[in-house]
Amino acid sequence: MLKKIVILLSFCLTLVVALPFSALAEKQFTLVIDPGHGGKDAGAVGKKAKEKTINLNVALAFGKLVKEKCPEVKVIYTRTTDKFVALKERAAIANRNNADLFISIHTNAVPRGKKVYGTETFTLGTARAEENLEVAKRENSVITYEEDYAETYAGFDPNSPESYIIFEFMQDRYMEQSVDLARCIQEQYTSYAGRQNKGVKQAGFLVLRETSMPSVLTELGFISTPAEENYLNSERGQRQLAQSLYNGFATYYKKVTKHLGTKVAIAEKTEVDNTPAVDLQPAQAPVQEATPPAESVAPKKQVATNAKPVYKVQIFTSPTKVKSSDKRLKNVKKADFYKDGKTYKYTSGSSTNYNEINNLRRQLSKRFKGCFVVAFLNGERIDLNEARRLSK
Ligand SMILES: [Zn+2]
């Protein structure tokens, strides 16, 4: 009898110990990708593009990469077509599916006349800067498209600063993971796509409040800035942003799954995309930005925000735009071009350090005879001597 009890006990104990581990090992990692807006809600609108379309294109391309490179991850979209989905439903999709991660994809805008460049990724929290509160207000105001929104969101008024007091008393137990993911994504926007980094920030987003897993809301760029709109609306821009999101996700995913002890195959980070820029914002010569430092959660890699001259090596010119597969661009580091009248001028390298670029010029002169150093300030070509004076 005693023997039987012991066997039974040890059997139960085995079950208790083994179950959670096997449950963990077998639970499929689920990623919910949320393309912001849709249908009657266009989101921010630029001169030619709409936020809802940019968000959807980038989201689908990002999800496709995850499916290809991490087939063991379950990818769920909150929408895959141009349809309206209520904010609460987006979060509910993630909660119902017991998701491990929620990434909401959006495009930024500021009032006309202002030119702002770059990406920023938010986690749930209290906005300490007016600028961040404005982003939350704009994104939360989509609830007004929903009938009974006052009831559904318990009287939350997206445009009243008072409504945001609730976020001050809120505890986010996934804060640490969310900030980590946001950093991974921001880092990749800069290192992979060369985008200006506006940092990891916090604000009161309803969609993040409703989710019960690590979650971020990322803003791909400013549709209200013409050069950024061109980039966001281009095939190349969307491909680069999707790849940056994938790289950021993969970095985070690798860390998390290692922690759980499961074996996962993750594709290595892709090489930096060096195809020449089309309508690209001056990522290498960032515009001066007044970002209150108190708000940023220490982004790891901040692109210099002071306007400093940027040096490049001009290698050849062409009366027409050349294809990225052109022989002359093969193995050219940081290939780019700028337009001078009707001429396309191709460059290599990009640095605020003149000596570094001058060394690159020496190397390149074997292949491109007569290549020379050119300087830019805020994306505009300036006199080299003037640039060197400004550098000092
Ligand atoms: Zn949005």
Topology:
Layout lengths: L1 H25 L3 E6 L15 H19 L4 E4 L9 H10 L4 E8 L10 E6 L5 H11 L8 H4 L22 H17 L5 E7 L2 H4 L5 E8 L3 H8 L1 H26 L49 E9 L17 E5 L2 E9 L2 H11 L7 E6 L2 E3 L1 H8 L1
Question: What would your notes on this structure say?
Answer:
With 392 residues, this protein is α/β, with parallel strands linked by helices. It has two domains: 12-260, Zn-dependent exopeptidases (Aminopeptidase, 3-Layer(aba) Sandwich); 308-391, Sporulation related repeat (Alpha-Beta Plaits), CATH 3.30.70.1070. The chain contains eleven helices and eleven strands. It has helices at 2-26, 51-69, 87-96, 130-140, 149-152, 175-191, 206-209, 226-233, 235-260, 354-364, 384-391; strands spanning 30-35, 74-77, 101-108, 119-124, 197-203, 215-222, 310-318, 336-340, 343-351, 372-377, 380-382. The strands form two sheets. The protein has a six-stranded mixed β-sheet, sandwiched between helices. 42% of the residues are buried. The model is unreliable at 15-24, 263-271 and 274-306 (pLDDT under 50). The structure holds zinc ion. Zinc ion (ZN) binds next to loops.
CATH architecture of the largest domain: 3-Layer(aba) Sandwich
Small-molecule binders: zinc ion
Which bin fits the share of residues in helices?
A: 25-40%
Spell out the helices and strands N to C.
HEHEHEEHHHEHEHHEEEHEEH
CATH topology type of the largest domain:
Aminopeptidase
Termini separation comes to 89 Å
What is the rounded Rg?
24 Å
